[in-house]
Amino acid sequence: MIGLRARSSAPDLAIDLGTANVRLATARSGLVLDQPSLVARDGRGSLVAAGHEAVHLARHSPSGLSFTAPLAGGVVVDLDAAVALVHWALRQVAATGRRRPHAVASVPVGATEVERRALETAIVSAGTRSPLTVVEEPLSAAIGAGLAVADPYGSMVLDVGAGITEAAVVAEGGVVASSSARVGCRAVAGLVARHMSRRHGLTLRPGAAQRIWPRTLAPGAGGGLTVEGCDVRSGQFRALEVGCEELAAVVQTPLHAMATVAREALERAPIDLAADVAGQGLALVGGGARVPGLGAHLSAGTALPVRVPPDPLHAVATGSAACLRQVAVLPRP
């Protein structure tokens, strides 16, 4: 179990460096920054823009710029880009200067030691003090979701993000059992986009797949969906009808994987804590919590009641901020 302990000197910032968004929060002010995890650099590798501005530039595709998402599957895949993104984020909240801020950051529960160190290196190199305090994401998510993590009774959180799905049973201030898979909402959308391209010769507009696939989860979903995009052969705009059942079959594998993550975490928990969870269900957080019908789908796949807390998107960031004085420290091998 990973427990909580007090710090005599609290960190200044909580950092949630995610596949889709980078978020910063403080214990006093709560969330202070929420921006897309994207950087734009010129031919010399210098940062031109980040966050929403980089997304805007990417949509207009200016020549001479390269665009990088520093994370995939919840972990750092481009260290230089990750450093640039975090340094930019710190500047946005005036957390750079002669005094480096203390920080607490969240890390996926299934991350390897190499992946954890990459996260730490990126954040410290961006301008925070060393050593960085690290907490496992499901614990932060559980705190941010309002679960009674300090109680001796079991509670469960399921975090479905853009690139990773994590579940944990928490009790007595720590993670008792957990599971994760490198699958998230972005992977589901990617499957839909590739299917439309290969099966129907249609290239979808940016973000279209993410808007389409949740409609397959609607109760009694049937009939057809109108899908619009660019014909891969002619280059002309085209719209066509695609059956809901066809797309539902495309997204079944990643949706099944999400439910499996929750079941595995529950199976790994002590029987008494698992019984607590069976009675009260789980809290669904992350971007997946905002997908219509996903909660009901996961409830059916886990045989557990699923509830969505008031602010599921920011649960990890706000939970980490709540840990600024009582933080969970990952053990070193």
Outline the secondary-structure elements.
Elements: E1 4-6, E2 13-17, E3 21-26, E4 30-36, E5 39-41, E6 47-50, H1 52-60, E7 66-68, E8 71-72, E9 75-76, H2 79-92, E10 103-107, H3 113-125, E11 133-136, H4 137-144, E12 155-160, E13 165-171, E14 174-181, H5 185-200, E15 202-204, H6 208-212, E16 224-231, E17 237-243, H7 244-268, H8 271-280, E18 282-285, H9 294-302, E19 306-307, H10 315-322, E20 326-328
Helix pairs in contact: 2-3, 4-10, 5-7, 7-9
Concise account of the structure shown:
By secondary structure, this protein is an alpha+beta fold. It contains ten helices and 20 strands.
Q: Please, could you describe this protein's structure?
A:
With 333 residues, the chain is an alpha+beta fold. The chain has 2 domains: 4-140 and 316-328, Nucleotidyltransferase, domain 5, CATH 3.30.420.40; 148-308, ATPase, nucleotide binding domain (Nucleotidyltransferase, domain 5). Helices cover 35% and strands 28% of the residues. It has helices spanning 52-60, 79-92, 113-125, 137-144, 185-200, 208-212, 244-268, 271-280, 294-302, 315-322; strands spanning 4-6, 13-17, 21-26, 30-36, 39-41, 47-50, 66-68, 71-72, 75-76, 103-107, 133-136, 155-160, 165-171, 174-181, 202-204, 224-231, 237-243, 282-285, 306-307, 326-328. The strands form 6 sheets. The chain has a 5-stranded mixed β-sheet, sandwiched between helices. A 5-stranded mixed β-sheet has the order 14-13-12-18-19, with helices on both faces. A 3-stranded antiparallel β-sheet has the order 6-5-7, with helices on both faces.
